[in-house]
């Protein structure tokens, strides 16, 4: 007779002293872990609920401006520094960690229309309603020195926007035309026009650094190459575009914030159809900024809210609003991709978390592992109706909520009419235009 | 789409500088000759060349080794494995890795951890969905390989009992086994002589550490049976029908003559549940925190012990319920009835999920194995049958026993025990996965009184038998799963660990509505219920809300709205719809014809009737 009994030595399973960690042998055999799917489902449900419980995105409000905040700029080297320009011509520099204003300059008379920092972070440029371009030092003046710009360029017309080249000592302004300036000179290297209209913003491509995009009030978006003297091509949309923003990871992709409540993500090579039409705002979209990862962007709207869109989705993943926040004019995603800043009409700059339920501060490795696991579970079960409902729910202010209802009715009516027209006309005589193509009027080269 | 940014005109070549700065440090064991040769003919190019030669070697080898992640053959013994590698990789130091590459994993083990049914083909859908499915499948394979590899770390081996040269293991007595095994294991065999309080029912806790038993004359006791430390001993002064631990050893449910009582581990009565009266059998579903009770009145009641609410009370409509078991794989309750059927119940349904006709007479005992694949039943017709629960519900094997079994139980590794009178018989299967073969007895034992309750102890090679003479713990080598999971049910857990586990377990309590025959159904696309919902909605409303409304012509002004013109307009629309229908049916017919004509010349086969 050969016999062997299961006989465990307790010393292998019990810790020796109280100071030791408990011994936890694992066995991943599925028969020892029944109900894998239902248990994971319950975990996913709990994780989704907790995510909503912990969704407290608002971090701080920076007040100090005496008029609406018109533009924001990030510091390229310091995460804690933010610059803002107001409608009364004041520029303020903020320290985000202290949440305090560290410097205030009366830069212009009238609006500060645009501002940008130099890529090295030593100085910044502002343009204003007083037809000037000014370069300022980033550091505060020493004791006894006066607050003065490094350079001032007097122009003939009002400049409405400015952007700096990402690698060279070149910047571009826009107004009636797009001017490209050398930092050392007082006259532009070249100026480019296409039609006669006021151009509201100009942006350098961060990857293909010689490319620029601009949008004008005659409803078009124009692309330029700095090395040529003429613009490349333009696309005309239904309504005017307020700003554009280039994707920092994909050189050809940019997103346009449009007056018709939508955002359009274009591929530069094929302008006749936008890649995605992002819909969710219920009023004109005023500003847009990409996350440094290039996967998401944030948009600011006249409807007193900001929304975060994934680049490939047409619906927003998040909406931020507060009772006190009025029309949001400018928005920026910080360079560590964790925070969002927005400047609004009622003179405040607000700081938000980019991921509403994220825990700030250092995470222990177990916290990190739990977070990753929960994230995966949420992803796995996101289509289940119960989980979907909880994850999607957002409280909206009444004005936005009722606007959404109203626009849904309007859209439905329009759709019905279109279908009826299609039905009652000769087959083929009324073409079916897709939602993407509907908003593009023409592409001109 | 992405392209590396072109360097600007006057951007300094930074990268090269950094590379030049960061030189690879040379180790003392990196070929002694190198520095001397360097000294002889200095200059970087030579050095670089050697580096280039050395580098590509590594990825090449790893690539070769990585590819056969799953060895197609069952695990190769170590010596063979060594030989199969044609050229073992040599380190620079000259040392040689005796086990290069990742450890090979046998296919069967990988199969055990595989969650995707690979026989199903990925549908020809949009490329995006297809891509995602393919990625998920690859990921799944990787995780199953990794999980299978973790089996190498399991510390314990299962027990066994083998007769030498043709000796029948059934003839081996308990005394022989006790004599042959070590002292610690021998101590697991004991006999509690409790003749006074009549036949006993017993239950082990989920960790296998604690044992509770209750006699039909009111004696209830709970003890840590490994250390033989008594936790409590009381007399409830009432007949005890059944006894069961709840989720932990701290709570004890006792079905007494009238009502259901819950005691803690010191014997203090915590609850008396009067809504469950005259309960005959108890089952606890540990992941749902449900206590299922079968009563003499014919009701199956589910009590949620975490909140104290009755989730469902189902009338089985089959008279007195005296036979009950749970399927540990899907938490379905199996009830045995006096008409020979076994019915399967879930709290979500008022009707049984399935009814299986098992025996000619009444059903005496039912049990289901831990994988949920096999169900063993015994009936008044003295038959013992094993059923396949994977969809077919067909008997796999049957055997007539001289007395018929009154009690049945499966062990974790698939051993089947039957209690017949005062004899206990145990059958074992050939392999781990198969059902127990009823031809050959594995072990047998005679007790001092008729058997009244049976259970294999989880994670120990021990079978607990309650009988009229008391409680016996007998040794059954190879019965239990040797390796427990420390986070799930740890026999050696401390109080703190138990408390932590309790919180975790309560947080992920599975709702009672999710109990169904296939517990993986939640992860699949639910097509049936979508269609069913639509149908039910139509039935409920009396019309189809998504159907097209019949055309109603709008009244027009200035005398154009005469009845004749209205009818005319209506007719026009109707005709158009009719034409559309006819067009569609024509096309369908055409397609049907094409399909039929394709296998031209093939005669209908007699086997066609089996094609579904």
TrEMBL record, chain A:
<dbReference type="InterPro" id="IPR001680">
    <property type="entry name" value="WD40_rpt"/>
</dbReference>
<feature type="repeat" description="WD">
    <location>
        <begin position="278"/>
        <end position="319"/>
    </location>
</feature>
<dbReference type="InterPro" id="IPR051733">
    <property type="entry name" value="WD_repeat_DCAF13/WDSOF1"/>
</dbReference>
<dbReference type="GO" id="GO:0016567">
    <property type="term" value="P:protein ubiquitination"/>
</dbReference>
<dbReference type="InterPro" id="IPR036322">
    <property type="entry name" value="WD40_repeat_dom_sf"/>
</dbReference>
<dbReference type="InterPro" id="IPR015943">
    <property type="entry name" value="WD40/YVTN_repeat-like_dom_sf"/>
</dbReference>
<comment type="subunit">
    <text>Part of the small subunit (SSU) processome, composed of more than 70 proteins and the RNA chaperone small nucleolar RNA (snoRNA) U3. Component of the DCX(DCAF13) E3 ubiquitin ligase complex, at least composed of CUL4 (CUL4A or CUL4B), DDB1, DCAF13 and RBX1. Interacts (via WD40 domain) with DDB1. Interacts with ESR1 and LATS1.</text>
</comment>
<comment type="function">
    <text>Part of the small subunit (SSU) processome, first precursor of the small eukaryotic ribosomal subunit. During the assembly of the SSU processome in the nucleolus, many ribosome biogenesis factors, an RNA chaperone and ribosomal proteins associate with the nascent pre-rRNA and work in concert to generate RNA folding, modifications, rearrangements and cleavage as well as targeted degradation of pre-ribosomal RNA by the RNA exosome. Participates in the 18S rRNA processing in growing oocytes, being essential for oocyte nonsurrounded nucleolus (NSN) to surrounded nucleolus (SN) transition.</text>
</comment>
<feature type="domain" description="Sof1-like protein">
    <location>
        <begin position="354"/>
        <end position="440"/>
    </location>
</feature>
<feature type="repeat" description="WD">
    <location>
        <begin position="321"/>
        <end position="362"/>
    </location>
</feature>
<dbReference type="GO" id="GO:0046697">
    <property type="term" value="P:decidualization"/>
</dbReference>
<comment type="pathway">
    <text>Protein modification; protein ubiquitination.</text>
</comment>
<keyword id="KW-0690">Ribosome biogenesis</keyword>
<keyword id="KW-0853">WD repeat</keyword>
<dbReference type="GO" id="GO:0032040">
    <property type="term" value="C:small-subunit processome"/>
</dbReference>
<dbReference type="Pfam" id="PF04158">
    <property type="entry name" value="Sof1"/>
</dbReference>
<dbReference type="GO" id="GO:1990756">
    <property type="term" value="F:ubiquitin-like ligase-substrate adaptor activity"/>
</dbReference>
<dbReference type="GO" id="GO:0000462">
    <property type="term" value="P:maturation of SSU-rRNA from tricistronic rRNA transcript (SSU-rRNA, 5.8S rRNA, LSU-rRNA)"/>
</dbReference>
<keyword id="KW-0687">Ribonucleoprotein</keyword>
<feature type="repeat" description="WD">
    <location>
        <begin position="62"/>
        <end position="104"/>
    </location>
</feature>
<dbReference type="GO" id="GO:0007292">
    <property type="term" value="P:female gamete generation"/>
</dbReference>
<dbReference type="GO" id="GO:0080008">
    <property type="term" value="C:Cul4-RING E3 ubiquitin ligase complex"/>
</dbReference>
UniProtKB/TrEMBL annotation, chain B:
<feature type="region of interest" description="Disordered">
    <location>
        <begin position="539"/>
        <end position="612"/>
    </location>
</feature>
<keyword id="KW-0539">Nucleus</keyword>
<feature type="repeat" description="WD">
    <location>
        <begin position="356"/>
        <end position="390"/>
    </location>
</feature>
<dbReference type="GO" id="GO:0032040">
    <property type="term" value="C:small-subunit processome"/>
</dbReference>
<keyword id="KW-0677">Repeat</keyword>
<feature type="domain" description="BING4 C-terminal">
    <location>
        <begin position="441"/>
        <end position="519"/>
    </location>
</feature>
<dbReference type="InterPro" id="IPR040315">
    <property type="entry name" value="WDR46/Utp7"/>
</dbReference>
<dbReference type="GO" id="GO:0030686">
    <property type="term" value="C:90S preribosome"/>
</dbReference>
<feature type="compositionally biased region" description="Basic residues">
    <location>
        <begin position="15"/>
        <end position="26"/>
    </location>
</feature>
<feature type="compositionally biased region" description="Basic residues">
    <location>
        <begin position="57"/>
        <end position="83"/>
    </location>
</feature>
<dbReference type="Pfam" id="PF08149">
    <property type="entry name" value="BING4CT"/>
</dbReference>
<feature type="compositionally biased region" description="Basic and acidic residues">
    <location>
        <begin position="573"/>
        <end position="584"/>
    </location>
</feature>
<keyword id="KW-0597">Phosphoprotein</keyword>
<feature type="compositionally biased region" description="Basic and acidic residues">
    <location>
        <begin position="1"/>
        <end position="14"/>
    </location>
</feature>
<comment type="subunit">
    <text>Part of the small subunit (SSU) processome, composed of more than 70 proteins and the RNA chaperone small nucleolar RNA (snoRNA) U3. Interacts with DDX21, NCL, NOP2 and EBNA1BP2.</text>
</comment>
<dbReference type="InterPro" id="IPR012952">
    <property type="entry name" value="BING4_C_dom"/>
</dbReference>
<dbReference type="InterPro" id="IPR001680">
    <property type="entry name" value="WD40_rpt"/>
</dbReference>
<feature type="region of interest" description="Disordered">
    <location>
        <begin position="1"/>
        <end position="103"/>
    </location>
</feature>
<dbReference type="InterPro" id="IPR015943">
    <property type="entry name" value="WD40/YVTN_repeat-like_dom_sf"/>
</dbReference>
<comment type="function">
    <text>Scaffold component of the nucleolar structure. Required for localization of DDX21 and NCL to the granular compartment of the nucleolus. Part of the small subunit (SSU) processome, first precursor of the small eukaryotic ribosomal subunit. During the assembly of the SSU processome in the nucleolus, many ribosome biogenesis factors, an RNA chaperone and ribosomal proteins associate with the nascent pre-rRNA and work in concert to generate RNA folding, modifications, rearrangements and cleavage as well as targeted degradation of pre-ribosomal RNA by the RNA exosome.</text>
</comment>
<dbReference type="InterPro" id="IPR036322">
    <property type="entry name" value="WD40_repeat_dom_sf"/>
</dbReference>
<protein>
    <recommendedName>
        <fullName>WD repeat-containing protein 46</fullName>
    </recommendedName>
</protein>
């Amino acid at each position: 007779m050969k016999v062997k009994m299961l006989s465990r030595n307790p010393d292998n399973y019990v810790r020796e002293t109280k100071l030791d960690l408990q011994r936890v042998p694992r066995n991943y055999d599925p028969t020892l872990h029944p109900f894998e799917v239902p248990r994971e489902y319950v975990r996913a449900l709990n994780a989704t609920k907790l995510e909503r419980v912990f969704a407290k995105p608002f971090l701080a409000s920076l007040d100090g401006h005496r008029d609406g905040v018109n533009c924001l700029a990030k510091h390229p080297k310091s995460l804690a520094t933010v610059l803002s320009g107001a409608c009364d011509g004041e520029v303020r520099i903020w320290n985000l960690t202290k949440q305090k204003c560290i410097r205030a300059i009366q830069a212009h008379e009238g609006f500060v229309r645009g501002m940008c920092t130099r890529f090295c972070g030593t100085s910044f440029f502002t343009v204003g309603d007083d037809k000037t371009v000014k370069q300022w030092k980033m550091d505060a003046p020493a004791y006894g020195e006066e607050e003065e710009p490094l350079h001032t360029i007097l122009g003939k017309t009002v400049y409405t926007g400015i952007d700096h080249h990402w690698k060279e000592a070149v910047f571009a302004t826009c107004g009636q035309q797009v001017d490209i300036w050398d930092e050392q000179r007082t006259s532009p290297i070249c100026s480019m026009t296409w039609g006669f209209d006021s151009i509201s913003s100009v942006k350098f491509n961060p990857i293909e650094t010689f490319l620029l995009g601009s949008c004008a009030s005659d409803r078009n978006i124009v692309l330029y190459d700095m090395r040529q003297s003429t613009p490349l091509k333009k696309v005309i949309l239904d309504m005017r575009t307020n700003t554009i923003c280039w994707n920092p990871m994909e050189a050809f992709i940019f997103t346009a914030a449009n007056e018709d409540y939508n955002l359009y993500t274009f591929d530069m090579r094929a302008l006749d159809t936008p890649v995605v039409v992002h819909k969710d705002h219920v009023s004109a979209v005023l500003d847009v900024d990409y996350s440094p990862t290039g996967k998401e962007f944030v948009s600011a709207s006249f409807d007193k809210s900001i929304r975060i869109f994934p680049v490939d989705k047409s619906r927003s993943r998040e909406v931020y609003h507060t009772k006190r926040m009025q029309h949001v004019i400018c928005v920026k995603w910080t360079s560590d991709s964790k925070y969002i800043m927005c400047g609004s009409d009622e003179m405040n700059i607000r700081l938000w978390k980019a991921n509403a339920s994220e825990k700030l501060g250092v995470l222990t490795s177990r916290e990190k592992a739990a977070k990753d696991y929960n994230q995966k579970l949420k992803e796995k079960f996101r289509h289940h109706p119960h989980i979907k409902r909880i994850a999607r729910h957002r409280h909206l202010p009444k004005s936005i909520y009722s606007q959404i209802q109203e626009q849904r009715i309007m859209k439905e009516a329009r759709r019905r009419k279109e279908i009826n027209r299609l039905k009652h006309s000769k087959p083929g005589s009324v073409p079916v235009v897709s939602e993407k193509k509907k908003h593009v009027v023409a592409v001109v080269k | 789409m992405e392209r590396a940014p072109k360097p600007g005109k006057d951007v300094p070549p930074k990268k090269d500088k950094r590379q030049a700065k960061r030189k690879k440090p040379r180790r003392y064991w990196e070929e002694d000759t190198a520095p001397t040769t360097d000294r002889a003919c200095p200059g970087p190019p030579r050095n670089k060349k050697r580096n280039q030669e050395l580098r590509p070697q590594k990825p090449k080898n790893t690539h070769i080794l990585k590819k056969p992640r799953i060895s197609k053959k069952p695990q190769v013994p170590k010596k063979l494995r060594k030989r199969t590698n044609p050229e073992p990789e040599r380190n620079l130091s000259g040392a040689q890795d005796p086990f290069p590459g990742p450890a090979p994993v046998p296919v069967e083990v990988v199969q055990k951890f595989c969650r995707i049914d690979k026989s199903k083909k990925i549908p020809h859908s949009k490329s995006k969905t297809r891509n995602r499915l393919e990625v998920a499948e690859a990921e799944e394979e990787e995780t199953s390989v990794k999980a299978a590899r973790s089996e190498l770390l399991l510390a314990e081996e299962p027990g066994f009992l083998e007769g030498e040269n043709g000796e029948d293991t059934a003839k081996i007595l308990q005394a022989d086994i006790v004599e042959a095994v070590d002292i610690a294991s021998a101590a697991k065999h004991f006999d509690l002589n409790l003749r006074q309080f009549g036949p006993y029912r017993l239950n082990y806790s989920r960790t296998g550490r604690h044992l509770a038993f209750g006699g039909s004359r009111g004696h209830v006791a709970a003890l840590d049976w490994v250390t033989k430390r008594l936790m409590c001993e009381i007399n409830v002064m009432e007949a005890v029908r059944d006894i069961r631990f709840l989720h932990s050893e701290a709570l004890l449910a006792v079905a007494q003559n009238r009502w259901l009582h819950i005691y803690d581990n010191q014997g203090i009565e915590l609850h008396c549940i009067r809504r469950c009266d005259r309960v005959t059998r108890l089952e606890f579903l540990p992941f749902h925190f449900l206590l299922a009770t079968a009563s003499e009145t014919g009701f199956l009641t589910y009590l949620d012990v975490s909140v104290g609410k009755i989730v469902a009370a189902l009338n089985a409509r089959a008279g007195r319920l005296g036979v009950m078991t749970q399927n540990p794989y899907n938490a379905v309750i199996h009830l045995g009835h006096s008409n020979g059927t076994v019915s399967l119940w879930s709290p979500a349904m008022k009707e049984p999920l399935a009814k299986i006709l098992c025996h000619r007479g009444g059903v005496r005992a039912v049990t289901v194995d831990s994988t949920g694949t096999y169900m063993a039943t015994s009936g008044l017709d003295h038959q013992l049958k094993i059923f396949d629960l994977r969809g077919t519900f067909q008997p796999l094997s049957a055997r007539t026993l001289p007395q018929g079994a009154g009690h049945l139980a499966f062990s974790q590794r698939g051993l089947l025990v039957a209690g017949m009178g005062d004899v206990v018989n145990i059958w074992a299967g050939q392999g781990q996965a198969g059902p127990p073969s009823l031809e050959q007895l594995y072990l047998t034992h005679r007790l001092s009184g008729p058997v009244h309750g049976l259970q294999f102890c989880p994670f120990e090679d021990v079978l607990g038998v309650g009988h009229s003479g008391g409680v016996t713990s007998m040794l059954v080598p190879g019965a239990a799963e040797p390796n427990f999971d420390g986070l799930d049910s740890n026999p050696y857990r401390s109080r703190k660990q138990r408390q932590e586990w309790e919180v975790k377990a309560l947080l992920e309590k599975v709702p009672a509505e999710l109990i169904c025959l296939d517990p993986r159904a939640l992860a699949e696309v639910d097509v049936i219920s979508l269609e069913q919902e639509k149908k039910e909605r139509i039935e409920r409303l009396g019309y189809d809300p998504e159907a097209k409304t019949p055309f109603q012509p709008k009244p027009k002004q200035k005398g154009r709205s005469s009845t004749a013109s209205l009818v005319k307009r209506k007719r026009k629309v109707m005709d158009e719809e009719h034409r559309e229908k006819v067009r569609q049916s024509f096309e369908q017919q055409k397609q049907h014809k094409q399909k039929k004509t394709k296998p031209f010349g093939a005669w209908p086969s007699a086997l066609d009737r089996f094609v579904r």
